[in-house]
Every structure is written in C-alpha cells, then in structure tokens.
C-alpha cells in the first residue's frame, strides 16, 4: 500500500509541469500566479493529499488517527440523528393526537349545534302557530306527532317539551281552559326518562307564586310532565330565567337520567311573543317571554356514536368533562381504560357561554420503538465506514483514471482529425470526380443530339447511363458519410406530395414497362395537397424502394400507397388481404400489416374521439408510405441484414442486378431524421412490402394544380373487377375533378348507364376485361345507339404486359383511345383533353405531355457562363444554345465582374463557385455591390432613367454552378443573393429550367417597375408576382433589394 501510494505523486507532482505542457492549458509563469487557486481547487487538494499523506511514512499512524476521528465524529452524529428523529416522531405523534382530538371535538360540537338549531326552529314554530294564532293551530297531539316525525332531525335529543308562561292572575282561567291543575315538580328526583318510570299518582299542586311555567306540550315519551310547573324546580328555574334574559340556549349541569343512569343535559330556549331587536335589554326580553322549550340530550350516547363514526387504527381514550367549576369538574363521558404518554385537551362550545366543557384525549397503546431513528443512525455509521473504504479505494484509482483520461483525449483528437480529414477528402473527391463527370455526361448528351446510327446511339446511351450510375454511387457514398458524421440537414419547403409521386412514376415507368410490370400509386384523400418537408429526401427514399422492387420483380405489380397513420391505426386491414383477388395484379402478396407491427407509433392508444380528426387538429401530420411488390422476396436468413450498409442478400446479387447495398441503409437513416420508422415484410417467391413513416407539416396553401373547370361536372364509369386497381383509377380521376363510379361486372354496365340520374361521359375499361367480354361492349354501344342515348367515350387502360398485344380492328371500333399505365395526373389530363376535344390535347401523341411553349424565353437571350474549366464551359454553352440562347463564356471571376458592370447586355449568368483568384462567391458579392450602387444613383437622379435601358432595378439573375453538395454551400448562395443553384454534373434541361424561372421572375419585377414609372398600375400583375414570387427564398432576396415605397406599392395593389 505504501509502495503504491508513493508512486502516485511521481505522476501528479514531480511530472506536473510535463503534464501541463502536454495538455497545453497553462504556461509555467501562469502556473506560478495561479498557484493558490489551484491549491484550493479539487485537483490541488487531491495533489496535496497525495504528496503529504499517501506518500509519507506516517501513513499508518495518520490513517488510524483519521479513522478514529472519522468514527468518533460519525458516532456523535449518529446519536444526534437518533435524538433528532425520535423527537420528530414524538412531535408528530403529538400532532396526530391533537388532530384526532380536535376532529372529534369539532364533530361533537357540530352535531350538537345542529340539534340546537332544530330546537330553536321548533321554538319559532310554536311562537308562530300557537301564540300568534287565535285559536291555536297546535295541540298536544299535533305537537307529539310533529316531534316524533322530525326526531331524525334531532338525533342527539331524546325528548322535547314546551312550557308556557302563566301569571298568577291568569292561573284560574288557564286551568279551566286545559282541564287540569298546575302541579309542583318533585324535587327529590329529576324527571324520568320514559313514561313508565313516572309517578302516576297526582303530585302536589303548585303553590301560589307570581309566575308559573306549566308544560302544555310534550313528546309522547314525556307527556307525563304535562301540567308540571318547571319554575318549582331549582335548576330548571335557573335555566328558564337565564334563557329568557339572554335570548340564547341554556344548558343544565350534567345529571343521570332515570333508569338508564346515563348522563345527560337539558337545553332550554325562551319563546317570545314578537321578534326582538338584537340590542334588546334583559328587561325587554323578560317581558316579551311567553314560553320555554326544552330538549334532553344523552351525552354518553352522543359521544359513543361519534367515536363509532371515527373508528381508526389509532385507538385513543376520550373523556368529556364539564369544567364550569374548575375545582370540581364533572365527568360527562369517560372510559375506564387508563391512557399513557402524551395527552391533548380540546375545548367544546355548546352555545352556553356559562357552561364550560372540555375533551381529553390519550393514546391507549404505548408509543412504538423509534425503529426509523435506530436504523437511520446505525445506517449512518455503516455508510461512514463504507465511505472511508471507498475514499481509500478512490484515491488508489485516481492516478490510473488520469492516465486513461489523457490517453482518451489524445484518441479523441485523433478521431476528430480523422473525421474532418474524411469529410474534406470526400468533399474534395466528390468535387474532383463531378467536374470531369460533368464534361463526360455533357459531351455524351451533346453527342446524342447529333445524327448517329443505331449502333452508335446504343453505345452512347450505354456510356451515358454508366456515367449517371457512377454519379448516383457518389451521391450515395456522400449521403452515407454525412449521416455517419451527423452533418446531413433536412429542408422544410412546401411541396405537392402527389406531384412528387407522379414524377417518380415518370422516372421509373420505363424500366417497369420493359419487364411488363404494373406500376401504380394511391394517396389517401385525407392527406393535404401541399405539405412542408424535405421533398428531395422523400423522393430519394421512395425512388430507392421502387427501384429495388423493379430490380427484383419479374411479374406482377409494384404498388405505392400513402395514408395517414391514424387511418391505419383505426383500420389495420387497409387493402391487403391474404387472398390474391384483392391485390393489384391478382398475384399473391405479403401481408403488409406485418411490415409495421413493430412501429412504436402503433403501440400508442388512440384518443377517444374519431381517429381521423387527430391529424386535422395539429400542424404535424404522420404519413405511412408502403411499397408492395410481387418479386422474388428476401430469404429469411438474410432479412436481419437488409439495412446493413454495403451488404447484399447474396454475393451474386450485385453481379446479377447491380447496386452497392447502401440504398436501404441510407433510406433508414433518412427516415430516422424525419422522425419516422421503417420496416418490411418479405416472403420468398411471393414478394416484399417496405413501409416507412415520416412526420411532415401541414401547409396553408392547399390547391390542386390539375383540377380545372374543363372537367368539372363530368362523370366517369370505371369498369374493373379488381377493387384495388379500380380504386387507383378512381383516385387519379378525382384529382382532375371527375366524379368516378366503380362497376365490377361488365354485364351491369348498361343498367348503370341507363338507370343513373347523371349522364355518364366517360367509360374507363381495363384492357383485359374488354378483350374477355368483347361481345358485351358491341351490344352495349349498339343498344345505346338504337335508344338514341348519349354514348360515353370508351377508354381502355392497358398494362405494360398487355399493351403490346394486337387487337382486331373490330374490337377497337368503339374505343376512343388507349392509355398505357402507370396512370399519372398530367398524362391522364392530356389524354382526356384529346378525347373530349378540349385544351391542348390535340398537340400530344401517345399519351405524352405536350411540349410547353417555353423555349421562346431563351431565344435571343444573352447568357454569360463563368467557369475555369474549358470542358464545363463547352457543355454549358452547348446545352443553352440548344434552347436558342446566345452564350458568352468567361474563364475567371475577374472577367465576369468586368462584363457585368452596369450597363451590360446580359439577361442571366451561370457562375462557377470554385475558381482561382476570385471565386464565384466573391464575384457575386462585387456584382451585387455594383448593382446596388447603380440603383441608388438612379433613384437619386445622378444617372438618367434610360441609362440602363428602362430596366429598373438593374439586377442580373446569377445562378451558382458547383460540384459541392453540402448544405453550407446552399446557405452561402442564399446569403450572397444568388438566384438559383445547379449541381454538377448537370443536364441541359436542368440549366434550362433554372434559367427560365429566374428570367421570368426578373422580367415580372422589371415590368412592375416600368408600369409604376409610367403610371400604369395593374392590380393583376402585382397580385400574381406577389403571391407566386415572394414565397420563394430567392424571391425574398430580390424583394429585399426593393425600396420601401416599391414594396408598399406592390402590396397595396394586392389589397385593393
């Protein structure tokens, strides 16, 4: 032990300077200045202990002294803890006894007051109906019956009686009216409790006196006291005199009731002939008194009932005393059990201020041993011993922990440096690969636009596809690196989810058509049209899942569905059943419910209200997206490593189908970033279903771009014997605003058309149903023609597997057109426009979208392309010239600044970011400064208005071109007021789309300014530009360059 402790200061104190130099925190001189603070710090105290105690020869002696002092101190502390906790327990027991005693006293007092109030009410009743009525409305029978029936209101009284005030001059008349003589009370005993205890022999006649108080009414149990003069009894006389003087209830001293021998008291109330003022004098009260009402209370019975109601595990002894005479208290209630320990006294108030009563309470049992205090004090000693041992063990471990800590810090710095190096390496490699790949793909695209024979075109397309596959692989590797480093950021922009899904179908339907697969999508109508989220990442996940399904599926279908999670939680059998008739292509499918059975969101309980309302009450919506296929499935032994990066089901998979095995891993990480979950179910030779959830935000903008008035009011009949496939067709028709009706049986079509109240304009029929029931359609059409009814337009829906089949001309006699799946809203809109003879449908062929007349926007436009790479310049220039633009090239940022100095002739500029000398960011910043300075001069009049060719404000759209795909580059482009972003390798269509958008927006702003200067204020133009332009980030940047007057003008025109 001495050896180990003596080694500790070698690393802490002797080499302290070396350690500080290694960590790099303090210099030698700075340590001298900070010596005292370090000495009193935790580390300084630790070093001091180790150098003066653990490394000393007196370790044993010092440790014994410290141990003795430690134990002695904690022994004294344990004694104090025992005394303190025991006193707390005694005080708590005392407070508990006081609480219980006060509670019983309060309840006894409350019950007594209730009975007093009822007696007082009875006194008022007698005053009102006996003395105030002539003749009296109350007699003995009425009083007795009323007293018996209302006895439950006076549970503490055993009887009531009423005595009237009679003067000596009225005695003779009074006795004649009642038929009995006023009798004297027997002074040898108190009134009996029950009638059978009474002396039935006639008592003595009451002697002559000024005033009498004979009882005229009494409860049946006490009617033997009728005619007895209460003033002849000493204590009753005192009660009557005090009651009529005070106007309050007066109690007698406790006395034993006859027969029961239980203690009781009598409460007496005075009855007045009229209501007296609150400040009436005793003389006025005596004169106004006309009678006296008394009630007998059984005190012992009252207390017994109370204690029975408050029975608890804490047994206490209760005694009630009359302490009117403190020297001679009268025990009204008490138990023979002798109490021990603490006691408590509670005061009782029964309404009589003269009589004093108290309740004494004690515990029956002795106080238990203070086990908590004992265990706590003993436990404290044990803990003190353990702390001493732990302190000794801790000190011996500190040195090793310090060494480990320094080693971990070194490894941490190395890991951070390696992570930074990896990120820089990936970014550099990505940029260096993308730049030449942009030239390769661009030149191949330009080569495909030339005249090539079939063999050459095949070679070029193969090379172009290989290059795009390489770029896709680079993107996946970069995404994986970003995810691992935690630097992948998500966007939050409004987008149309249904349009995104249509784009995915348009991108992948060619591969599905080559294999004869049916591709379909369905989105629940409860999902908003526009949501807020990262549409690019959602597109990436869905594209990856569908591409995998196409890759591993040889027959059947691929079905994409989107629902709210609340829909699935309320009905877990959406669309998928175990029999094949309910699938899209009639092939068996895996039960999709098993793909989400482990999701945490489905283990939560739904609210009691309608589940469909859950998503509408909040801005956040939970979507569940499933991709179902009928492919080869995943072997059970390989399902556990599906989401492992760079892992394939079998080594031969990558050679047969291609791919790196990283797509699903990236998809899982992206789903996790969007606060969702992903799972799958797969059965070999049946198919797979991948399901994931995402959390998006509801957008206030909720419009459907495909709904138009040209299809409003149209009704279509969908003839399909498969409910799932029919529902998909109905979904796309409803997106166009067409009412769709589903009919599963062809022989019912005629009845459906003729019997309906609404005319059927269109019939969408599955191709295979048309072929298998060719005779029925001829009959239906001829029948409608003979009946001179409107014949609906017949449209066939063909699957890729059946679209190539040849059809006889007779079978297609009544068919208006054939639409090849997969269905998309834009394609379906164009086809229906051609069939119905409206819109631009006549300009499209084979169901393809018509070419929009946007190429004219670039005709004659002057475009400046800035890039230090000659190949990239040639690719960009060639792509833009294809759309009619006049392109000027510059190979440095300095030349671009000189060429864009106002005034200039360029309509837009593509600016490369990474260039030598002056990069794209610096060039853009200088160009914006020149534009701002020129606009300021024009507004101040220093430069004439026509100096820039009547274009106000002078601001050229600048679009960034870079091979970087990190979020920081996007943010910097926005900060420098760039108008767009093009990632290398780019395609001509991408350049064209970004350029036309920027030019159109810039022209709209310039038009508004020209209208203002020429006093041509147009409300419609302002509204269009304000609503469609200010919501984009580049629009907000442009609006920020306007003056306040310009902004207020545009906004005011919208309001007007």
UniProtKB/TrEMBL annotation:
It is an enzyme of class 2 (transferase). It is found in: Endomembrane system. The chain crosses the membrane at residues 66-85, 371-391. Residues 715-836, 862-999 form the Response regulatory domain. GO terms for cellular component: endomembrane system; nucleus. The keyword Hydrolase does not apply. This is histidine kinase. It comes from Zingiber officinale.
């Amino acid at each position: 032990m001495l050896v180990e402790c003596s080694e500790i200061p070698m690393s802490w104190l002797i080499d302290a300077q070396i350690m500080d130099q290694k960590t790099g925190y303090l210099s030698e001189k700075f340590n001298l200045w900070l010596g005292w603070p370090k000495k009193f710090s935790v580390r300084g105290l630790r070093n001091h202990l180790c150098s003066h105690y653990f490394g000393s020869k007196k370790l044993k002696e010092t440790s014994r002294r410290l141990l003795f002092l430690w134990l002695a101190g904690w022994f004294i502390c344990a004694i104090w803890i025992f005394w303190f906790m025991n006193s707390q327990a005694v005080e708590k027991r005392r407070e508990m006894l006081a609480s219980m005693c006060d509670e019983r006293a309060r309840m006894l007092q409350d019950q007594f007051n209730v009975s007093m109030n009822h007696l007082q009410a009875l006194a008022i009743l007698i005053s009102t109906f006996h003395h105030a009525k002539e003749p009296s409305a109350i007699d003995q029978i009425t009083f007795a019956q009323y007293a018996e029936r209302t006895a439950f209101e006076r549970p503490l009284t055993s009887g009531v009686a009423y005595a009237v005030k009679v003067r000596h001059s009225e005695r003779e008349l009074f006795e004649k009216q009642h038929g009995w003589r006023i009798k004297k009370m027997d002074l040898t005993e108190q009134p009996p409790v029950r009638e059978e205890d009474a002396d039935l022999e006639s008592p003595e006649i009451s002697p002559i006196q000024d005033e009498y108080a004979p009882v005229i009414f009494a409860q049946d149990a006490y009617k033997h006291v009728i005619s007895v003069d209460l003033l002849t009894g000493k204590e009753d006389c005192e009660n009557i005199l005090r009651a009529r003087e005070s106007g309050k209830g007066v109690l007698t001293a406790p006395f034993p009731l006859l027969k029961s021998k239980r203690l009781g008291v009598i409460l007496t109330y005075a009855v007045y002939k009229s209501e007296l003022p609150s400040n009436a004098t005793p003389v006025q009260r005596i004169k106004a008194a006309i009678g006296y009402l008394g009630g007998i209370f059984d005190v012992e019975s009252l207390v017994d009932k109370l204690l029975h109601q408050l029975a608890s595990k804490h047994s206490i002894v209760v005694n009630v005393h009359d302490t009117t005479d403190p020297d001679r208290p009268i025990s009204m209630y008490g138990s023979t059990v002798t109490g021990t320990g603490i006691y408590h006294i509670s005061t009782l108030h029964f309404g009589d201020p003269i009589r004093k009563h108290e309740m004494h309470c004690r515990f029956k049992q002795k106080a238990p041993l203070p086990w908590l205090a004992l265990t706590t004090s003993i436990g404290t000693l044990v803990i003190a011993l353990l702390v001493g041992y732990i302190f000794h063990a801790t000190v011996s471990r500190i040195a090793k922990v310090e060494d480990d800590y320094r080693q971990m810090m070194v490894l941490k710095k190395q890991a951070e440096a390696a992570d930074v190096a990896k990120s820089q390496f990936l970014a550099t490699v990505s940029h260096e690969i993308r730049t030449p790949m942009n030239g390769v793909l661009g030149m191949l695209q330009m080569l495909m636009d030339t005249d090539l024979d079939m063999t050459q075109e095949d070679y070029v397309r193969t090379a172009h596809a290989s290059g795009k596959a390489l770029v896709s692989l680079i993107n996946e590797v970069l995404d994986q690196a970003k995810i691992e480093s935690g630097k992948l950021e998500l966007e939050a922009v409004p987008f149309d989810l249904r349009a995104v899904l249509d784009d995915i179908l348009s991108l992948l339907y060619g591969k599905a058509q080559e294999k004869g697969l049916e591709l379909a999508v369905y989105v629940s109508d409860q999902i908003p049209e526009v949501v807020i989220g990262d549409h690019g990442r959602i597109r990436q996940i869905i594209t990856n899942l569908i591409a995998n399904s196409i890759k591993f599926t040889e027959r059947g279908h691929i079905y994409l569905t989107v629902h709210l999670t609340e829909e699935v939680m309320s009905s877990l059998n959406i669309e998928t059943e175990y029999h094949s008739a309910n699938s899209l292509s009639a092939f068996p499918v895996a039960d999709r419910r098993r793909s989400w059975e482990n999701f945490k969101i489905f283990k939560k309980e739904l609210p009691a209200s309608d589940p469909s309302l859950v998503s509408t009450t909040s801005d956040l919506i939970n979507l569940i997206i499933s991709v179902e296929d009928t492919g080869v499935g995943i072997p059970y032994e390989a399902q556990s490593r599906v989401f492992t990066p760079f892992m394939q089901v079998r080594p031969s998979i990558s050679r047969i189908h291609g791919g790196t095995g990283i797509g699903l891993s990236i998809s899982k990480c992206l789903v996790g970033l969007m606060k969702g979950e992903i799972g799958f179910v797969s059965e070999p030779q049946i198919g797979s279903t991948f399901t994931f959830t995402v959390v998006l935000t509801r957008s206030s903008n909720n419009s459907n771009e495909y709904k138009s008035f040209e299809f409003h009011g149209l009704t279509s009949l969908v003839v399909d014997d498969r409910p799932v496939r029919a529902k998909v067709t109905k979904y796309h028709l409803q997106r166009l605003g067409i009412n769709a009706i589903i009919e599963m049986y062809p022989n019912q079509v005629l009845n459906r058309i003729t019997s309906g109240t609404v005319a059927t304009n269109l019939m969408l029929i599955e191709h295979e149903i048309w072929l298998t029931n060719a005779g029925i359609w001829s009959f239906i059409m001829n029948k409608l023609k003979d009946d001179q009814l409107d014949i609906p337009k017949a449209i066939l829906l063909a699957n890729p597997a059946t679209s190539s089949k040849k059809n006889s001309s007779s079978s297609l006699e009544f068919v208006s057109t054939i639409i090849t799946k997969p269905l998309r809203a834009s394609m379906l809109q164009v086809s229906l426009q051609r069939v119905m003879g409206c819109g631009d449908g006549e300009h499209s062929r084979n169901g393809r979208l018509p070419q929009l007349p946007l190429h004219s926007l670039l005709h004659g436009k002057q475009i400046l392309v800035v890039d230090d790479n000659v190949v990239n310049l040639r690719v960009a220039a060639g792509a833009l010239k294809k759309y009619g633009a006049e392109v000027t090239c510059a190979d440095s940022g300095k030349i671009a600044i000189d060429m864009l100095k106002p005034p200039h002739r360029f309509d837009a500029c593509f600016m490369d970011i990474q260039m030598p000398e002056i990069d794209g960011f610096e060039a853009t910043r200088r160009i914006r400064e020149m534009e701002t300075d020129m606009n300021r001069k024009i507004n101040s009049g220093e430069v004439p208005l026509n100096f820039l060719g009547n274009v106000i404000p002078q601001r050229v759209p600048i679009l960034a071109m870079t091979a970087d795909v990190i979020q920081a580059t996007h943010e910097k482009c926005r900060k420098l007021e760039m108008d767009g972003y093009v990632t290398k390798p780019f395609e001509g269509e991408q350049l064209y789309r970004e350029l036309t958008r920027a030019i159109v927006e810039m022209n709209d702003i310039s038009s508004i300014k020209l209208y203002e200067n020429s006093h041509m204020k147009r409300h419609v133009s302002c509204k269009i530009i304000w609503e469609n332009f200010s919501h984009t980030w580049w629009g907000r940047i442009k609006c920020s360059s306007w003056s306040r007057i310009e902004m207020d003008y545009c906004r005011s025109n919208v309001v007007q």
